[in-house]
Amino acid sequence: MRWDDPGAPQRSPADAASIVNILKKCLVDGYGDTDPLGWTLEFEDAPGGVAVFRNSPVTGSGGYFRISPYNVPTNAYIRTQSAMAATGSAPADLFAPGYLNSVPTEAALTRWIIVGDERAFYFLLHHSTTDFVSSTMSVAMFIGDFTPVIPTDVATFICTGANANSVTSSLTVNFTSINTGPLSCASGRTNQLINALGGDNSRSRLGIPTGVSGSSSYNPYALYLAGEIGESYLANADNTEFPAGGLIQPVALKRDVSVSQSRMTDVENPFIRGYLPGLIGLGWKTHYGTPWPAFKEIENAQHLGVALNSLSSTYGGVMLWINTEDWG
């Protein structure tokens, strides 16, 4: 699903309400000849720009997420929050919520792509004209069920974004101060990129409200790309080919704690909780300066590149790729 499909909803005006409308069309209603992904709209406060969606309780976990404007409905930015259950559209109506995320969906981010199914989806928003170059503005979010390491895990529904590790208070975000979330991490400085995918960035955590069996323990997790991301791989690279023998890895959810024997063997709050479906990460960067969006065949499947936010002339390009064909 993408912004230039026949009949596709547009981000006009470029406020939070237009993002809610895009999600309603893609998840619930469909548009043109395109069928929806199979989610439901459970609650809505249309004047307030608030909506609560649910994924499939049959093939998925039946988890919920709430989307709301950042302060006022006319604001371009949004907030997102996951929950295991919901009884209404207010924050107090969320049961066992995840962290409250702030997402700087700038007004200039008018091109969008959604890849997903009835269980989970990736939502990419990109600048109206720029490509994979310096000063690129782009946002990528994952919302839905991750693939758990332990199949009986009862708390698999998450939202990504920038947060203050809190279920009630959120960050003040913009493209020049902090990472915009673990999937669309800012790469203006090397350490930002390494931290965002290193499993311990304090502003890229995911609040999973219970343990595997539903215990009341609340533990933060973060995205983790195994292996060191070296600076030599982060400089701008306009090539579109991967190094021969390069490592292609799934992106894991790693518990945000120091390593110990008890934590490594904890089955209620596993050190590695699961993986984001269809997402792979690389230890190097490609496609700097090429047009957005970028598609590439990787291991016999078509993949969509996730843009790095580049706040300087030194960084930009793609390191994460979404499988657009099969999530297994």
Topology:
Elements lengths: L15 H14 L10 E6 L4 E5 L9 E6 L8 E9 L7 E4 L3 E3 L5 E8 L3 E8 L10 E8 L1 E2 L8 E3 L2 E2 L26 H7 L8 E4 L10 E6 L23 E8 L5 H4 L7 E15 L8 E4 L2 E7 L10 E6 L5
Antiparallel strand pairs: 1-2, 2-3, 3-4, 4-5, 4-6, 6-12, 7-8, 8-9, 9-11, 10-16, 13-14, 14-15, 15-16, 16-19, 17-18, 18-19
Give the gist of this structure.
The chain has about 325 residues and is mainly beta. The chain has helices at about 15-30, 190-195, 260-265, and strands spanning about 40-45, 50-55, 65-70, 80-85, 95, 100-105, 110-115, 120-125, 140-145, 145-150, 155-160, 160-165, 205-210, 220-225, 250-255, 270-285, 295-300, 300-305, 320-325.
Structure description:
The chain is mainly β and 328 residues long. The protein has one domain (16-323). Helices cover 8% and strands 35% of the residues. Strands 10, 13, 14, 15, 16, 17, 18 and 19 form an eight-stranded antiparallel β-sheet that branches. Strands 1, 2, 3, 4, 5, 6 and 12 form a seven-stranded antiparallel β-sheet that branches. A hairpin with a 3-residue loop joins strand 7 (109-116) and strand 8. The chain is globular, with a radius of gyration of 18 Å. The two termini are 20 Å apart. Residues 186-191 have low confidence and may be disordered.
